[in-house]
Structures are given as C-alpha cells and as structure tokens.
Amino acid sequence: MKTKQEIACNWLERYTRQKLEDFSKYILLTNFNNYIDLFCDECDIARVGYDSNMRIANGKGITMINFGMGSPNAALIMDLLSAIKPKACLFLGKCGALPEKVHVGDFILPLAAVRGEGTSNDYFPAEVPSLPAFILERAVSTVLRNHHLDYWTGSVYTTNRRLWEHDAQFKNYLLRTRAMAVDMESATLFSVGFYNHIPVGALLLVSDNPMMPDGVKTIQSDNLVTQEFAQRHVEMGILALQEIINDSETVRHIKFEF
Predict the structure, then answer these.
(1) Which one-letter DSSP state was computed for residue 65?
(2) Which residue of 97, 142, 227, 243 has the fewest C-beta atoms within 10 A of its own C-beta?
(3) Max alpha carbon distance in the chain (Å)?
(4) Long-range Cβ pairs for the range 119-123 (8 Å, 24+)
(5) Taking the CB of residue 238, how many other CB atoms lie within 10 A of it?
(6) Sequential pLDDT tens for the chain (258 residues)
(7) Which of 70, 65, 61 shows the shortest CA–CA distance to 53?
(8) How many CB atoms lie within 10 A of CB 191?
(9) Is there a contact between 185 and 141 (Cβ–Cβ < 8 Å)?
(10) Beta bridge partners of 158
C-alpha cells in the first residue's frame, strides 16, 4: 500500500471490522461505548459486540463510531473516514465547563475550537483557526430549538492533557482564553476534517465543572450525567443528522478547494 487512500480504506475496515460499502455517508462520532448502546436502542437494533477496536453501529441511515479518547484518535478517525468521503460528521462529546454560569447537563454548540492539543499542527500552521461546518451547527441548533432546549455557543479549548484539574497555572490560562469549555477532541476533529474535505460539527454535553474542586468529575457524578443526560444527547445527534439528510439545503454548498 503506497497511497493514503489505499491505507485509509484498509485501516478503516481493520479498525471497525466493517466493509466500506456498509458505512453511511452520515457519521456520528463519540468516545463512549454506552453512547453506541444508546444509539442501538434509539434505532431499535440489537446492541453490537466488542470485537473491533472502534465499536460501530448502523441505524436510521447513520453510522455511529466510538473512535476512542484524545486528539491523536480524533485525527486518526478523520484520516480514515477520508476513505468513504462522508457528507457530514457530527461529534457527540463531553466537555468541562469553564465559566461558573455553565452547568452540568447543559449543551454547548461550539463555533470554534482553540488548538491547544498540538496534533492539528501536523495538518495546518498554528495560526489557522479550527472551525466546525456551519451547516451542521445550524442543523443542531434547529433541532435543539424545536425541542425547546437551550444551549451555549462560544469556543472550546482542546487540550492533550487529561489530568490538569490540580494545576492552578493552567486553569488561570484557560480562563484567559475566554473559552466556554475544555475537551480533548473538537479542535482536532474540525481541523483534520477540513484537511480531508469532510464537514464536521459538534454538540458537546457539559459533564463537569473542573475549575472548582467539588466540580471535578468522579465515578458517581459521571454515572449521574450518563443516567440523566446521555440519552437526550444521542437523540439530538440523530435528529440533527436526519435534519441534514432530509433537508435539500445540505452540505453540498460547502467547498474545500484551497
């Protein structure tokens, strides 16, 4: 295998154990196995097994993939998906809220992402902004509005650091960025998606308030977030992609020539 396309085609099947022709052109991305289970339940299909590195399920004209955690895995899945050239990818991720006004269970619709992770530097110079596809964020906004759900907009800071909640200096830096939330994937997904000519959006669920000691995620608090908010998160993701699928004003208008 010499070309990127050859490698991506082979590796996408290898990581997911699914034939290329079985992928939908509309992709939901997640980091959580229970989101795959919830997707199967929402689509009224049997829950899939654990025989692949990237757990995957198909339903309602959509393919959902658990690509793992962190920016290197985010870059990998976007490179691999170039094999099938999706029409739209929507990331359903969790994030930590930075301002006190943003609470657990809130939705954040990111309008941009700060590239603090470093992985995206292998694809674009540092000064290039990381932006989601507007048409996808518009579809998510429409679905949330139709279900009378509020959401925050703003930027999300993406970092490679998983354990930083004890670091006062880093926390002060995060506040100076004026970001609404912090995560580990969004900036990479947006940037590497753009690099591969794939429209990517995100709907983030606030799972903790890590700027406060009693707001740091624990086993108990994470279980509570899953029980109370995860199903609605997955449902909104499905409906947002269906909005794209069924709307004649689709992502065909997005141009990637550069």
Answers:
(1) E
(2) 227
(3) 51
(4) 119/71, 119/72, 119/74, 119/75, 119/160, 119/188, 119/192, 120/71, 120/75, 120/187, 120/188, 120/191, 120/192, 122/75, 123/75, 123/191, 123/192, 123/195
(5) 23
(6) 889 999 999 999 999 999 999 999 999 999 999 999 999 999 999 999 999 999 999 999 999 999 999 999 999 999 999 999 999 999 999 999 999 999 999 999 999 999 999 999 999 999 999 999 998 999 999 999 999 999 999 999 999 999 999 999 999 999 999 999 999 999 999 999 999 999 999 999 999 999 999 999 999 999 999 999 999 999 999 999 999 998 745 555 455 554
(7) 65
(8) 29
(9) no
(10) 115, 183
Buried b (16+ CB within 10 A) or exposed e, 121-143: eebeeeeeebbbbebbbbbbbeb
- Residue written as token pair 């609470």: 103
How is residue 210 written in tokens?
């890590």
> Residue 86 is encoded by which pair of tokens?
């999706």
